[in-house]
Amino acid sequence: MLRLAALTINGTFKGFAFSPHIRALASVVGVAIWSQVSLGFLMAFLAGGGAPSGVIGWSTMVLLEIMNVYRSWSDVGKNAARP
C-alpha cells in the first residue's frame, strides 16, 4: 500500500520530494521478501522436491526489484540536482 501511495503521489505535488525515497524503501522491502521466497524454492530444489522454474521465476522478481531500487535512487539524485 505504501508503494502504491508513493506511485500515486509521484510527481503530483511539487513540494513533496520524498516520493523516490518511499519507492526505494518499498523496493528494498520487496527485495527482502522476494529473495526469501526465492531462497525457499532453491532449498526445496536442492533437497530434491522442488522445481528449478520456481527459483528462476522468483529470482527474476528479485532482479526487477533491484532495478527498481536503482531507478528510485537515480530519481533521488535528479531531484537533489534541481534548484
Write up this protein.
This protein has 83 residues and is mainly α. The protein has helices at 2-9, 19-46, 52-81.
How would you briefly describe this protein structure?
With 83 residues, this protein is mostly helical. It has three helices and no strands.
Radius of gyration: 16 Å
Helix content: over 70%
Structural class: mainly alpha
Mean pLDDT: 85
The shape, in one word, is: elongated
What letter string, H or E per element, gives the SSE order? HHH
Q: What's the N-to-C terminus distance?
A: 31 Å
Q: How many extended strands?
A: 0
Query: Low-confidence stretches at least 5 residues in length (pLDDT < 50)?
Result: none
As a percent range, the share of strand residues is under 5%
Major β-sheet profile: none
The number of distinct helices, counting runs of at least 4 residues, comes to: 3
Provide keyphrases for this structure.
3 helices; 83 residues
Chart the SSEs and their pairings.
Layout: H1 2-9, H2 19-46, H3 52-81
Helix pairs in contact: 1-2, 2-3
